[in-house]
Design a protein that fits this description.
single chain; about 260 residues; alpha+beta; Hypothetical upf0131 protein ytfp; five-stranded mixed β-barrel; two-stranded antiparallel sheet; 7 strands; globular
Length: about 260
């Protein structure tokens, strides 16, 4: 199942889930609207963007933003870090076999991408985002301070980001790498395998010159686990312990354009 922007605009994702066992986990539409309007009311003032706003992506938004934007730049958030902190029982897993997706949690820093959303379409684009990211209320929308372009004299801005709701029942907390890898290896949801989510995020960051040691370590452990299951000799494939190697077109043989559309 590939979710398109048109599906989100028509709210077809929610409609398709309302008659399934996961319906009870969906945030009421009134709560989603309230959250959306609260974020709009809190957006930062200032003339620098002439009414436009930045959106910070740290996971699937990096490689599949699915929102109208006029600019994209590297940016770093301080005070939050990226981790596999959210069990996914719809998008990248099931109730019986949950996967994991990324969330921003307190502490450290995180480098990702910011997307500039034009002033005249902010509410329209935020509604698409809320139907994508806030379906179950697993995140808190926050306006965070970001450093643009990752240079010593980088300007500071405010960007909307979705941070972990630690009170949500799907919040996983800090898990051992082995547990994360186990979830990523075997889980598969409406939008495909959980391992693909890791791969595409790693590739999206590498395409923009960002090396994330945490994600790279998980990818290597995942490859090692696959090799152990297949009972390959240790020296059978000298490349299997390495993270995906970027090609000139920014892929590792699987075109990013063919990746399933993502809702976190």
């Amino acid at each position: 199942m590939a979710i398109t922007r048109q599906d989100l605009e028509a709210d077809r994702l929610r409609a398709s889930l309302c008659s399934t066992p996961v319906a009870s986990s969906l945030l009421p539409e009134a709560d989603i609207e309230q959250s959306l309007h609260a974020a709009l009311a809190a957006r930062p003032d200032g003339d620098a963007l002439q009414g436009d706003v930045w959106l910070f992506g740290y996971g699937s938004l990096i490689w599949n933003p699915m929102v109208v934007h006029t600019d994209r730049r590297l940016a770093t958030v301080h005070g939050y870090h990226r981790g596999f902190y959210l069990y996914s029982r719809i998008n990248r897993g099931t109730w019986d076999n949950p996967g994991l997706v990324l969330g921003l949690d307190r502490g450290g820093c995180c480098t990702g991408m910011v997307f500039r959303i034009p002033a005249h379409v902010i509410e329209q684009e935020f509604r698409v985002l809320w139907r994508r990211e806030m379906l179950t209320g697993a995140y808190h929308p926050r306006w965070l301070r970001v450093k643009l372009d990752n240079t010593p004299d980088a300007p500071e801005a405010r960007a909307l980001a979705f941070v972990m709701n630690r009170e949500h029942p799907a919040y996983a907390g800090r898990l051992p790498d082995t547990r994360v890898v186990d979830c990523l290896r075997h889980a598969c949801g409406l939008y495909g395998p959980a391992r693909e989510y890791l791969q595409q995020t790693l590739l999206g960051l590498a395409t923009n010159g960002v090396d994330d040691p945490y994600l790279g370590r998980l990818w290597r452990l995942l490859q090692d686990s696959d090799g152990a299951d297949a009972m390959h000799p240790a020296g059978d494939d000298p490349h299997r312990h390495r993270p995906p190697v970027m090609q000139a077109d920014g892929t590792d043989g699987i075109a990013a354009a063919n990746a399933p559309h993502e809702t976190v």
